[in-house]
Design brief:
Elements (H helix, E strand, L loop, with lengths): L5 H23 L16 H4 L4 E2 L1 H10 L16 E2 L2 E2 L7 H5 L6 H21 L7 E2 H10 L1
Bound molecules: iron/sulfur cluster (2 copies).
One iron/sulfur cluster binds next to loops.
Length: about 150
């Protein structure tokens, strides 16, 4: 991705729109969306028995917005952006991070996840990016190895 091109700007805008939409759905979901205490435990995937999958537009969005060199590899089971229990890229976090809540209704979360994946797939089609749905560690390690 070449930073600053018109295509890239449009791509980033499209991802931002999707995230805005997701946040609105979570906000209006009320009890079904759950209540997060921001403890950060679910960012330690092995311990929490949780998995996070992401798509190429999401990692491109993180890379573009969090400054060069801040896409970190993930050698362990905890997201590298979780520092002392806090998300250091909160504004740019992935759709799965926005949707998942340990006290949410599972059907609500599944429905929302499906809907957002369709939107992210559309972005891939529009910008001719191969669509992938990849576990976080695999995606971060592949991105930082390039
Ligand atoms: S979803 Fe649950 S485990 Fe994850 S940060 Fe929120 S309260 Fe903690
Ligand atoms: S991006 Fe932030 S919210 Fe998502 S897993 Fe990493 S630390 Fe947790």
């Amino acid at each position: 991705m070449v930073a600053g091109s018109e295509t890239d700007k449009r791509l980033l805008e499209r991802v931002a729109e999707v995230y805005e939409w997701v946040d609105l759905q979570v906000c209006s979901g009320g009890e079904m969306a759950g209540v997060c205490r921001s403890c950060g435990d679910c960012c330690d995937f092995e311990t929490f028995d949780h998995r996070l999958f992401i798509t190429p537009p999401e990692i491109m969005y993180l890379a573009a917005n969090s400054g060069s060199g801040t896409v970190k590899p993930m050698p362990g089971d905890r997201c590298p952006y979780n520092v002392d229990g806090r998300c250091t890229v909160y504004e740019y976090r992935f759709s799965g991070c926005r949707i998942f809540c340990c006290s949410a209704d599972e059907d609500f979360q599944s429905g929302l996840s499906e809907a957002v994946l369709q939107k992210l797939k559309s972005i891939c089609v529009e910008f001719q990016i191969p669509y992938r749905y990849t576990e976080l560690a695999v995606a971060l390690n592949a991105f930082t190895a390039v």
